[in-house]
Amino acid sequence: MKCSSSHKRSLRKQLLAVVAGVTLPLLSVSALALTIGFSQIGSESGWRTSETESIKAEAQRRGIDLKFSDAQQKQENQIKALRSFIAQGVDGILLAPVVETGWDQVLKEAKRAKIPVVLIDRGVDSDPGLYLTKVASDFKEEGALAASWLAARTNGKCDIAELQGTVGSSAAIDRKSGFDSVISNFPNMKIIRSQSGDFTRAGGKEVMESFLKAENGGKNLCAVFAHNDDMALGAILAIKEAGLKPSKDIIIVSIDAVPDIFKAMADGETNATIELNPHLGGPAFDAIDASNKGESVDKWIKANGPLYLPDTAAEEYQKRK
Asked: What is the secondary structure of 150-213 as a DSSP string?
């Protein structure tokens, strides 16, 4: 029979009493195991797949019963999954939201059910009181770091094509904001083409093909800023098919640090990537555990990574592939 969160907390207290020497009925380990619902956006990129695998592995390591739901990039599927988790009486919910808006009602339902919700790798435009915490990188910082590196590389003079992520997602909104905040300080740096590739390799290739045609075969472009590596990898294919040399004729900087981007960098086909840490399960599960113990939890648990360049790309690829 499924135990409620409050019942499980009671059982944990009983277990502590047993350890302390108080005579109580023996409790099974399974009765104390956490059940966590995880609503994932989908599998639009290599990074997203790595994140899912990492969280599943961490749940298994901790003995957590993880209820996984793939939303296939649709918010309505995520809301349906969250309501299913609430109906099942899970001990906590991990939500990687496909877009920022439209979450208030279902988050209120989880709040009423006293189920803590942890946002994973993206944020929502809702009252922070409706969720426990967000475990994510600072996307604005990632965009600003990409722009700062590009400004230094080009001496502050560059016409840029931007491959944006999914429209309405916090990652796309904040990475663009951070990037723009830096290049606004350089009068000779400007974005001349910008369009969403939806965080996919196919989308990145398709959009880059249209950019190249619009900009005199790519001759007007200095660089590409891709909101993730998969779109950058698609752009690389488009640039090569146009008869240009990626990383040389057109500089490329992107975000995620997936294995394939290190292979491309080692092959001389891209210039820089910023790591988006996919190992978010540990701090997310820790936050739920702390909440269930009545401990305070920070509203934002940051997990930013460094910028990588070609000099370490071959070594990083061997470690990550």
From this structure: HHHHHTTEEEEEEEE-STT-HHHHHHHHHHHHHHTT-TEEEEEEEEE-TT-HHHHHHHHHHHHH
